[in-house]
Write a structure and sequence with these properties.
The protein has 417 residues and is an alpha/beta fold. The protein has helices spanning 17-33, 57-70, 83-93, 100-111, 115-130, 161-188, 205-213, 256-261, 263-266, 286-299, 320-329, 344-357, 371-380, 401-416; strands at residues 3-11, 36-45, 74-77, 96-99, 193-199, 230-237, 240-246, 274-280, 307-312, 334-335, 359-367, 382-388, 392-400. The protein has three domains: 3-104, GTPase HflX, N-terminal domain (Rossmann fold); 190-356, P-loop containing nucleotide triphosphate hydrolases (Rossmann fold); 360-416. Helices cover 43% and strands 21% of the residues. The strands form three sheets. Strands 6-7-5-8-9-10 form a six-stranded mixed beta sheet, sandwiched between helices. Strands 2-1-3-4 form a four-stranded parallel beta sheet, sandwiched between helices. Strands 11-13-12 form a three-stranded antiparallel beta sheet. The protein binds guanosine-5'-triphosphate and magnesium ion (MG).
């Protein structure tokens, strides 16, 4: 049976109540993704958070009676809880209490598939938990399993502080190794034009990747369905191929531990030649989610990457005024549906335009007998002219700027040797 869950949030003014209600809506979606059943939601309007219990005295009592009345198993707070607040609330409300960050960590733990994702999630969970252990290693086991305590795969989360420190050190070492492997992979792809799909979780990124590249990435109406980057080739025209990467989605206030330990996954974006910021056009929170994604891009150092806004799910938008407004606010954006394929040709045309802006023509002259260099140049781009004299051959090549720069270096080095 699903866990029975009570959600609670604090609005700092009555005007902030509505945005808090939206925030609880998202918290409910996260809870459902984690397999919980939201039974009741409570919002308290309070200008200041209580240092001891976060919510006020009256709300603590309300939470206590609501939990008894509805047989609640778990209380989830939308705000970040200090370890003390968490403990005090558990003592007074008499159910388990977690915050939004712990819930997100839990979903990541459930969805981690590859060893890289598992390492990153476990590290984030341990970093989160480390600050929450007081005295001599609190007995986590008294809390039992369930939402908020699940570890990636079969690994049991450690509860002992000394063991946690050791485990964190080991995981950090593993991650360093993975980072190095990634760097090698990146180097190998450095000649290609790279598109990276970034966007709020559930925006429709994987659906778009599947539609554009006939890939088969898992799509689901859950939050954070994708944790591991998937890179696929995409041909935009004869001789114009790029790579498209689908990666983990963003969310408002991504827990800091996750940002830190998912740095290598998140930093896929840093490697992009062009970021496709994928937006769910049918979402009522569209502007706020765009802002959250832009904030996250800034936070990971990708704030100045070239971006193309791609509004998807237009098949679900029935109000033309909505699309008009978005077209006005976000000039040069593209409107598509990953599901029906509507607008995908326009998207491809726009991508080709963007890629072609980065294409250049270069001429190379190599000795006629150096077939190896001639073939290297054929690999580096499209050879549009080839003129042979008695002992030399001159080639004009159109290609991606960094690829041709690299070919130039390699050809010169080979000729000097
Ligand atoms: N109607 C409609 N639904 C879509 C479209 N694109 C995606 N969806 C649905 O939206 C949900 C999320 O789609 P995904 O492609 O998994 O979204 P994502 O951005 O990869 O999500 P995460 O990996 O979880 O961050 C799924 O239920 C999809 O079927 C679309 O163009 N139209
Ligand atoms: Mg996805």
């Amino acid at each position: 049976m699903a866990w029975r869950i009570l959600l609670c949030g604090v609005a700092t003014s009555s005007r902030a109540r509505w945005s808090k209600a939206d925030s609880l809506e998202e918290l409910a979606a996260l809870t459902a993704t984690a397999g919980g059943d939201v039974v009741e939601r409570l919002i308290q309007v309070r200008p200041k958070l209580d240092p001891a219990t976060l919510v006020g005295r009256g709300m603590v009592e309300n939470l206590h009676s609501t939990c008894r009345r509805h047989h609640i198993d778990l209380l989830i707070l939308d705000e970040e809880l200090t370890p003390t607040q968490q403990r005090n609330l558990e003592d007074q409300v008499r159910v388990r209490v977690i915050d939004r960050a712990a819930l997100i960590l839990d979903i990541f733990a459930l969805h981690a598939r590859t060893s890289e994702a598992k390492i990153q999630v476990e590290l984030a969970q341990l970093e989160y938990r480390r600050t929450r252990l007081t005295g001599f290693g609190v007995e986590m086991s008294r809390l039992g399993g369930g939402i908020g305590t699940r570890g990636p795969g079969e690994t049991k989360l450690e509860v002992d502080r000394r063991k946690i420190e050791q485990r964190i050190a080991a995981l950090r070492k593993d991650l360093k190794k993975i980072d190095r492997e990634r760097a090698v992979q990146r180097e190998r792809r450095s000649d290609m034009f790279k598109l990276v799909l970034a966007g709020y979780t559930n925006a429709g990124k994987s659906t778009l990747l599947n539609r554009m590249t006939r890939a088969d990435v898992k799509v689901s109406d859950q939050l954070f369905a994708t944790l591991d980057p998937n890179t696929k080739p995409l041909s935009l025209a004869r001789n114009v191929s790029v790579l498209v990467t689908d990666t983990v989605g963003f969310i408002r206030n991504l827990p800091t531990q996750l940002v830190a330990s998912f740095r290598s996954t998140l930093s896929e974006v840093l490697d992009a030649s062009l970021v496709l910021h994928v937006v769910d056009a049918s979402d009522e929170q569209v502007d706020r989610k765009i802002d959250a994604v832009n904030d996250t891009l800034g936070a990971i150092g990708a704030g100045d990457k070239p971006v193309l806004m791609v509004f998807t799910k237009v098949d679900r938008v029935f109000d033309d005024a909505v699309v008009k407004r978005m077209k006005r606010s976000y000039a040069r954006s593209v409107f598509v549906s990953g599901q029906t394929g509507e607008g995908i040709d326009e998207l491809r045309a726009e991508l080709l335009r963007r890629v072609e802006k980065e294409m250049v023509t270069r001429t190379f002259t190599v000795p006629v007998h150096r077939y190896d260099l001639v073939s290297l140049l054929h690999d580096a781009g499209r050879v549009v002219k080839e003129q042979a004299t008695r002992d030399k051959v001159k080639l004009s090549v159109i290609g991606f700027r960094p690829a041709l720069a690299r070919a130039r270096t390699r050809v010169s080095a080979a000729l000097k040797a």
